Amino acid sequence: MAKLTLNADREVIEQAKRNTSVSALFSRFIRALANGKDRHKPLGKLTRRASGVIDLKGRNHRDILADALKDKYKL
Fold it and tell me: How far apart are CA 67 and CA 71, in angstroms?
């Protein structure tokens, strides 16, 4: 299984951990997005709080990810 590092406010992380692991929560969320489920369902409180955390500053999300991976792996 691959590892993924996420950053969030401590309070958000604690709220996410109450009922399930963060890994399980993230996996279910990504699967639901991929399957197109709940597209018209309103966002939950936790999701609304996490939305917009990253400022892309006019850049493409793929470029930001590529830069982060280059920094992490010293490429």
Answer: 6
